[in-house]
């Protein structure tokens, strides 16, 4: 009887394999080396982080992807990579936006988590915590706004995301960080791509998926580089990497997971982001090239340059121009009276983009949203600056 | 035969918040499929993070003694006494 040959790691051809990476069986050691190499290569070649003492702001949420990002960033800064010990002479600073204020309101069993030990002691990186409600003059307005938004779909989660985005960009500019790193891996970016397209953000394709995207902050025209250095990695790579490297317990309370959990009778709780993540995950499982095919196709999409680029003060994305009657309004067309009223009687209706209008659809106290009543002064200032 | 099962990435909420459980089988030969069938019987039916229809939800990383179960033919993988099976999920966001 022919005996089955024992498999060996495809890279070192010595050890027994532990994980399959892009169809190749690799051992634990080679896997760690692969992840570290992909990260360094992404930073240097794709994200153009090549200058000495270049400053990176790493956005950390406590989730798996950003935890891996912080760990990898720490290893390259302190030269503690398991393989290739070459150091990158960059300055990394970790920013965490504390959402406890919202979590306590929406999650009954919520318990706060402290990441100081992980970031400061284990990873030895400077760590800044900003409370999400701190940019509001009256923090309870934020809770009121979330309650006023529709509980179905991704409205509440989108709103929290855009508030966090404002905090991140403002912090980066005030503290001299031109490079802002986000932890989404390739699989997440592929799902985000579909999700953004579904919500009407076709013009945001590039910012959503590129390794390195230049963004001009509308308030003071400062330039920021938005980086996705984990783009080459998949969910599985991140999970296994963390399994081998970190003993951190992951949070049970992810705000996005819980904000739409109230909705029971729709797939993925009626949340398009969750739904598309599940879609990509299922495809990826059956067809390992899914993620990279989606992302490489996205790179080929060209966007017609607009004659005049105006930005939405809420999401800071480009406000698209209307070309046909189908795109004219996003609120239910049977509500034409409401649309006309908002256009005539609110200060910022005409400055809000298609997707943010969709987010506000079905919200209560719409006038307050379109007048930016109670919003952080930063957002009002941007809205006043934008044409 | 005893199999140790641990849950990561928030999957413990599907099993009464237990991060680790021990399953006992009378049979001497157990496959991964048998473990999954057993887990189905004790999984909280209101939590949809573990099972999608009747199968394991896509995107859950399954390890047998810290090795990818794809290396061992997935559900057909033969288990030994005191093997450790790990289920790790990605959470939305993060």
Oligomer: heterodimer
- Compute the number of strand runs of chain B: 9
Q: Kindly report the spatial arrangement of strands forming the biggest sheet of chain B.
A: 2-1-9-6-7
**Can you count the helices of chain A?**
16
Biggest β-sheet of chain A: count, sense, barrel? 6 strands, mixed
Describe this structure in words.
- The complex is a heterodimer of chains A (387) and B (94).
- Chain A is α/β, with parallel strands linked by helices.
- Chain A has two domains: 28-303, Rossmann fold; 308-387, no CATH class.
- In chain A, 43% of the residues lie in helices and 11% in strands.
- Chain A contains 16 helices and ten strands.
- Chain A has helices spanning 28-46, 64-78, 100-106, 116-122, 140-148, 155-174, 186-198, 205-209, 235-245, 255-259, 272-286, 290-300, 336-345, 354-360, 366-370, 377-385; strands spanning 19-21, 24-26, 54-60, 90-98, 127-131, 179-181, 212-216, 223-227, 310-311, 318-319.
- Chain A has a six-stranded mixed β-sheet with strand order 5-4-3-6-8-7, with helices on both faces. In chain A, strands 1-2 form a two-stranded antiparallel sheet. In chain A, strands 9-10 form a two-stranded antiparallel sheet.
- In chain A, helix 7 (186-198) crosses helix 11 (272-286).
- The mean pLDDT of chain A is 86.
- With 94 residues, chain B is mostly beta strands.
- Chain B has one helix and nine strands, in the order E-E-E-H-E-E-E-E-E-E.
- Chain B has one helix at 32-42, and strands at 2-8, 20-24, 30-31, 51-52, 55-56, 61-64, 67-68, 78-79, 83-88.
- In chain B, strands 2-1-9-6-7 form a five-stranded mixed β-sheet, with no helix packed on it.
- The longest helix of chain B has 11 residues, at 32-42.
- The radius of gyration of chain B is 13 Å and the shape is globular.
- Classes of the chains: A alpha/beta (387), B mainly beta (94).
- Chains A and B meet through helix 2, helix 9, helix 10 and helix 11 of A and strand 7 of B.
